[in-house]
Model the fold of this input.
Amino acid sequence: MKTILVTGGTGFIGTHTVVALQEKGYKAIIADNLSNSNIDSLDRIEKITGIRPDFMKVDLSNEKECNLLFDTYENIDGVINFAAFKAVGESCEKPIEYYKNNMGILLNVLANMKRKDIKYIVHSSSCTVYGEPDSLPIKESTPTKFAVSPYGNTKQMAEDILHFTTNTTGIKAIALRYFNPIGAHESALIGELPNGTPNNLMPFITQTAIGLRKALTVFGDDYDTPDGTCIRDYIHVVDLAEAHVISMDRFFANKNKANLEFFNIGTGNGFSVLDVIKSFERSTGVKLNYTIGPRREGDVIKIWADTSFAEKELGWKAQKTLDEMTLSAWNWQKAL
Ligand code: UD1
Done:
């Protein structure tokens, strides 16, 4: 049985990935400082899979704490690195904190992988590295553009760090460039739980529908898109979690073709903000209160993935529809 360290494993994508790893026969160890997640994630994971993951509360941006983690667990075969600050707006207000945290975590983890001769890392990257695309759908070979936020820049820097460190350390890396992860596990035991007012669309929709917020504001309807609202490639978090397990399988089967590989993790379909609202109303039967407001600064207009490389090379393809995403997010919100 292979053992995978999952940093940030009590968070939204982390919990779903730990479930998927355990279901595939991997042993998972979670390291998280619980700054944006809850310890009861462990109970919830155990309820779904019957297996309680090992857990250590640790600030991985602190070198000593990170070293202690790797000294405590001597049998790690691979790492999935989710631990990071992730709010675009906050990163503009606190850029130094974002760089220190997100780059500090990655560097401490890589230093320990080198120290302990751990060969494999899957890193959580983002479609934000592409900026506003010149042509769509977007391929992995498309050059990245100047980042619009420090958060996005930490994703680009992480890819650069992985490029240069994998060239010299013997470590192999896969950077998964997620498009817009939404939805929740079908059990409604795990899902997205943002601190305070949500910045992202899906939790704002479900919190409005349940009565925690008065109305959703659609950020602009005068864009150059069919209905005037921005277009994204929404991906079910359960499909996304599976991509991490398949990436780990790829390492252990020696199928990787470069020290660092990139994959787009989306569905290949673009949906507008109004499409998501319609899907939510259709799948749940709940009417959503929303108004049209001004554009949000820094939003890209439209982006969706070319997923053919992930399909061919990784053997992964998203399975779930937009209606399944919006319905599962609603079931999670109701269970909360
Ligand atoms: C952003 C980041 C992405 C990151 C994600 C998670 C960029 C370009 N993208 O995605 O890398 O992984 O956050 O934090 O930095 N919307 C509304 N009303 C709302 C909220 C959102 O209309 O109240 C619209 C937005 O304008 C956008 C769409 O919904 O068109 C999705 O927004 P959001 O969920 O915040 O994700 P992104 O900005 O696409």
About this structure: The chain has a mean pLDDT of 97. The domain at 3-182+234-265 is CATH 3.40.50.720 (Rossmann fold).
